[in-house]
Fold this protein.
Amino acid sequence: MTESTSIQGCILLLDDDVDVLGANARFLRISGYSVIVSNTPTTALKQLEEEVIDAVVTDLRMPEMDGLEFAARAREVKPLLPLLFFSAYGSVQNVVAAMQLGAVDFLEKPVAPSLLLERLEDICGDHNEPRLQTRMAFDDAAAPFRHRVLAYEKYLIQTCMQKHNGHVAAVLEELKINRRTLNEKMQRLGIRRKRDAD
Amino acid sequence: MTESTSIQGCILLLDDDVDVLGANARFLRISGYSVIVSNTPTTALKQLEEEVIDAVVTDLRMPEMDGLEFAARAREVKPLLPLLFFSAYGSVQNVVAAMQLGAVDFLEKPVAPSLLLERLEDICGDHNEPRLQTRMAFDDAAAPFRHRVLAYEKYLIQTCMQKHNGHVAAVLEELKINRRTLNEKMQRLGIRRKRDAD
DNA sequence: CAGGCATGAGCAAAAATTTGCCTAAAAGTG
DNA sequence: CACTTTTAGGCAAATTTTTGCTCATGCCTG
């Protein structure tokens, strides 16, 4: 079936080993992602600023700048960007450092393709664009506490709702929230349920 | 240096090896922390509910329930409580799991006392790291609604508090929030006021 | 040291939120 | 269309949060 044609998101792949890079890129493309590759952190950072990217998958060991430093810099540019590490050199310290930088996961090479896909699925499953926009609302430093918290709640619910295509039951499950409460909140926050036309 | 003079906070130590437990407890007490010990996860969980605790330091390998499961349960009770692992069995997977549960760090046994102190300092002391920690918490897509909202509230307050160098009145003003309410929230969220040494 | 702020916290009333129960409307299916 | 599954929302009780009062403590200034 040609269902892999749907747009899954755009992944930035960073690895200094061009063979690995190519193989992974090919694999991800076949799986339906659009992929941008980079074999040096520097170019990757540039691409990060220029392209719309949903997630980054990076190696740890690289010449010029290691994966951690790259991640730190990437964070500055895109604070919410999901980072995924994969490396054969996962010492406890490295892993801790990566996770502290906000990595979603740290996969050990060799990475099972299915695992990588699964992770990316988790990451890109919900959307990135509306997310950032809504984020602006609750990130407005001038607004009073209460407003910001409400904005955040709204953002959370909307995002989740969207992710599950308006399926309330799924939202309940994911957010671990009482059905009645969700109703109330949506009422109060002015969130309306809407399903995508398929 | 006479740094151990100020009240540092209350640490819950969990380790099934009573010798290690005792030694660490003694060490931390000498260093100025108040320490609650536990040699089983179950009692630790109970203590978590009963006592006011600023951070938990736990082993990974334990009979009855491993450190990860303990951490998961602790999270349910205290979603924002700083967790610190230390263990000799730090596989990449374990570390990732621990960090995904929101651990602040994962130290490898044998742990250098100075390192442990340093970490606790980060956690209980100046809210520098905790900020990042909190931020990640509310960005953690897997966490339940309530946790995420709390994490966000904590982040807001901490950030604002830091911005105004611990000046509560200024925070009140900026966040447009009742003084009593702020007190309550700080209490509930485990935020301590901290002014920079000038 | 006295006096004045700034802050933390106990207490209880007031207000808001959460949640179970239940009904009706809406949506999805065959 | 008849039937099943999902949702929204009224109502009231249960629970949690907010907030005013008040007091005690700590800190700063003079």
